[in-house]
Amino acid sequence: MITLNYEQTARWAATNEVNALQSKAMQSAELLHNGKGEGSDFLGWVHLPSSLTPAQIADIKATAQALCSGVDVVVVIGIGGSYLGAKAVIDALSHSFDLLQKPRQHPQILFAGQNISEDYLYELKEVLKGKSVSCIVISKSGTTTEPALAFRVLKNFIEKTFGKKEAQRRIVAITDQSRGALRTMATQEGYKTFVIPDDVGGRFSVLTPVGLLPIACAGIDIADLVSGAVDSETNTAPNVDFEKNIAAQYAAVRNVLYSKGKKVEVLANFNPKLHYFAEWWKQLYGESEGKNGKGIFPASVDFTTDLHSMGQYIQDGERSLFETVISVASPQHTLEVPSEEADLDGLNYLAGKRVDEVNKMAALGTQMAHVDGGVPNISIQIPALTAYHIGQLIYFFEKACGISGYMLGVNPFDQPGVEAYKKNMFTLLQKPGYV
Ligand code: PA5
């Protein structure tokens, strides 16, 4: 089970202050469940894990199997919520050097449509030459420029390489039930499709086919992922008291810290596999809370790497930060520091210790230093990097995000701010209707 420990925030968020927010946190959790809060059209994610049926999971698994069999590379096209969840889970649960692993049990998963870089798309086409390629194109609106452009390039490549008929078999589209250019195209071209439910917003969609199909293609057990999320759904429901409800606690603590001028939350990990998990988390919290001139700014660091760069600011810069550290109790592998007779590097004091023990001491030392330096520290621990525990963590953060947004007084489920750049870009590119 995930555990949450916020003892190291006590200097800034006293127990009575956190407790004072108990009822607001629990009322906010209740609003998510009774659908009476703002943005209630987008609450499909609240009961999503427990409502996924074995037949739906089996369909996704079978599609992944068909899409991946004999295939070297699956290119997943999407941006924002149609990209980050899959990338986060796949990176967290894959071999660190997956691209170099042989023999392979599953295709390599590459991503596109998350930028508009000409070099990126050109070089992607370059590496795909001579390989057997499939593609999953994901866009809820079906009209987002970045993935649409990347898909045009990839579709053209796949059709030219494998022929139009075979391309039909190699492409799966995940989009709205009836609206958008991608839906129209998928119908006309005869692609297999999955629907993104109307009531699930992009950043809450990782447990729909948006995340589950690419994750299944990476050889990860999506049933385990969903089962972790189901348990988190139960453990964070409004009928679970505040004392046991870690989503409500996390939401309450971060709101107390925010009210004390801690405007930036730095999500830290001590395992590089969690780098993209933090990217997913940043979208979830940034897009949900950053509106109406309010919101904690979500940032992230990978430790110990970033202790040698951002560590200086966190220790000693402006005191507007708090840290939330995700730690993993047990690594997947065992590696001890070897002993050396000459001890030229002076590391024999570590000989025989697990590398993970060194990492854990680095984590503890960092926590002590940062708290001493004025940075409140929230600690979230998961037992191991398994599909089940990542599923738990995903739903925990989603639930806490909804609660926290309501506590802050914003609608956590809209994103009006992301439209501004699009309008300017379309005008500059002379898109019909925008000139
Ligand atoms: O959370 C969101 O709604 C956004 O980040 C979207 O996921 C992102 O803009 C991609 O949108 P779409 O799936 O419609 O292409």
What is the topology?
Elements: E1 3-5, H1 15-20, H2 22-34, H3 48-51, H4 54-68, E2 73-77, H5 84-93, E3 108-112, H6 118-128, E4 133-139, H7 145-162, H8 164-170, E5 171-175, H9 181-189, E6 192-195, H10 209-217, H11 222-235, H12 246-259, E7 264-269, H13 275-289, E8 297-302, H14 311-316, E9 321-330, H15 355-372, E10 377-384, H16 387-408, H17 419-428
Parallel strand pairs: 2-3, 2-4, 4-5, 5-6, 7-8, 7-9, 9-10
Antiparallel strand pairs: 1-10
Helix pairs in contact: 2-12, 2-16, 4-10, 5-10, 5-13, 7-8, 11-16, 12-16, 13-16
The protein binds 5-phosphoarabinonic acid.
5-phosphoarabinonic acid is lined by residues 79-82, 139-141, 144, 147, 201-203, 287, 415.
Descriptive labels:
435 residues; alpha/beta; five-stranded mixed β-sheet; five-stranded parallel β-sheet; 17 helices; 10 strands; 46% helix; globular; binds 5-phosphoarabinonic acid
